[in-house]
Design goal:
This protein is α+β, with helices and mostly antiparallel strands. The protein contains 16 helices and 24 strands. The chain folds into 2 domains: 3-245 and 433-468, 2-Layer Sandwich (Nucleotidyltransferase, domain 5); 299-384 and 478-507, no CATH class.
């Protein structure tokens, strides 16, 4: 029996998932790791990449049956190499907020939002800083691109991953030529010995073969996979998340809600304006996607669950974490649609969408607010998605139509609660599927399967809808008009609360 292998190097785990010919996960392995803050930069050591990959792969069963594979990783960031692929500076991850001047200048130059975490922002900031290594750069790539090159010898990335490096032309399925030329003009003014297209990896789309595992690559994995396996184009975690949730067709999207929260909506047409709050990336097939990425989601809620669990234990009860979450989530359904006047800001970190550099979690109410457990916890859950709603409202003002959203992540684990609130927040049906529990690496495994199993001319969205997810069960929450209106009114008061949040961050 053939299997298809997806590998993903996430922010906290390196994971490998194998799916069978029915596209069902059959085996997996993982390795826990964490970024380090060194010399003012969030980074990972590349030696741990290989330790983690070998650990994750060693737990996958029947590896000799792998017919195709692919690598995914956290998007963005900066890995710069010389001509011999020697790393010039430590890996700069997406977590870094050290490229503000570069991101602002490129956004103005391109008339296109370039977030701080994008690879080109890191490159240009290094240019602005006058860093010594800049003149010696021969290649820049992402973590997924680096691992893929080391395994296959092919310097290429999938188009979804490329869209987090540099703006993409979805018609040409390549980097935007006009913007490349504008960047090169900047480089020429500084007498740099390279052009941007010489540095960037080649762009490939889903379904194209991106090389095969070389003997040297198999050696890096200590023989855990046999040489010769074909590889799909390496992708970013946004693209694999879209694939894992069957959200790659126009007017579909997905919401990932855990420690952070982000939405991806596949566009029918370009946005009319440039928004700092909205990233424009692509699906693994190259279709344009609007991304709203928020740093804060369930961290503060988790803290409150912990405190309430502590209170329960004080009186001799000993509920499990799962019981606490379920009971508190379900209790929130008894709260008023407007949370009885209770307001929560859950910012533990800064938030780009609302232009705050630091966070201070707040609970605010008027003396006449109905302060009880149901309203308090409903406000907590509203807070997890409030910032996302602000970004999604921008898309609504642009006339972006959404037929369906797929929810995944910890916020949706308690059936019918987070899903219901998200439907009200986004005013769109939200579906939670019974599959895709393995998340991004599962999506990467599906892209590996698409490489070998697609029929002539079969689009990725058709392959997923008709062959992978056909008949897959799930639950859908439709937006309730009254609850959507109540959430909209709540958000207006939440926006006013952000002035208090800003003051708290400055003073406390």
């Amino acid at each position: 029996m053939n299997t298809y292998l997806g590998i993903e190097l996430g922010s906290t785990r390196i994971k490998a998932v194998a799916v069978d010919e029915g596209f069902r996960p059959v085996s997996s392995g993982d390795y826990t790791w964490a970024s380090r803050y060194e010399n003012g930069v969030w980074t990972y050591g590349l030696e741990e990449v290989w330790t983690g990959l070998r650990a994750a792969l060693s737990a996958v069963e029947n590896r000799a049956e792998v017919a195709a594979a692919g690598v995914s990783a956290m998007m963005h960031g900066y890995l710069a190499f010389d001509r011999d692929w020697n790393l010039l500076v430590p890996f700069r991850t997406w977590q870094n907020t050290i490229t503000g001047p570069a991101a602002a200048e490129l956004t103005a130059l391109f008339s296109f939002n370039v977030p701080q975490r994008w690879s080109v922002a890191h490159l240009y900031q290094a240019v602005l800083n006058g860093e010594e290594h800049v003149s010696r750069i021969a290649h820049i790539t992402t973590l997924a691109g680096y691992v893929h090159y080391m395994l296959t010898g092919v310097n290429a990335v999938g188009i979804g991953e490329a869209s987090g490096m540099f703006p993409i032309d979805s018609q040409a399925l390549d980097y935007d030529r006009a913007m490349v030329e504008k960047f090169d003009a900047l480089a020429a003014e500084r007498n740099l010995p390279w052009r941007l297209e010489e540095l960037l990896p080649r762009v490939l789309t889903a379904g194209q073969e991106a090389g095969r595992l070389t003997p040297a690559g198999a050696g890096l994995l200590e023989g855990l996979l046999p040489a010769g396996i074909p590889f799909a184009p390496p992708e970013g975690d946004a693209g694999t998340g879209m694939t894992a949730t069957n959200a790659v067709a126009p007017r579909t999207g997905n919401v990932s809600a855990g420690t952070s929260i982000f939405s991806m909506v596949v566009l029918e047409k370009p946005l009319e304006k440039v928004y700092e709050e909205i990233d424009l990336v692509t699906t693994p097939a190259g279709a344009p996607v609007a991304m709203v990425h928020c740093n804060n989601c369930t961290n503060d809620t988790n803290a409150w669950v912990g405190v309430l669990g502590e209170a329960a234990r004080l009186f001799g009860a000993n509920p499990s974490a799962g019981e606490l979450y379920q009971k508190l989530y379900e209790k929130s359904l008894e709260g008023a649609p407007d949370c009885g006047g209770v307001l929560v800001c859950n910012y533990l970190a800064g938030e780009g969408v609302t232009h705050l550099d630091a966070g201070r979690p707040l609970v605010v109410r008027r003396p006449d607010s109905a302060f009880n457990l149901a309203n308090f916890f409903r406000a907590q859950l509203y807070a997890t998605m409030a910032t996302l709603k602000i970004g999604m409202d921008i898309l609504a003002e642009e006339g972006v139509a959404i037929d369906s959203l797929t929810g995944h992540g910890g916020l949706f684990k308690t059936p019918g609660v987070g899903q219901r609130y998200m439907a009200a927040a986004c005013n769109a049906p939200v579906t939670c599927m019974d599959t895709a529990g393995e998340g991004g690496p599962y999506g990467m495994a599906l892209l590996a399967a698409y490489l070998l199993r697609r029929e002539e001319g079969e689009r990725l969205e058709d392959f997923l809808s008709n062959r992978v997810f056909a008949g897959v069960s799930g639950s859908t929450a439709a937006p309730d008009g009254a609850e959507a209106a109540a959430f909209g009114a709540y958000i207006q008061r939440y926006k006013a609360l952000l002035q208090v949040e800003r003051a708290a961050a400055e003073l406390l």
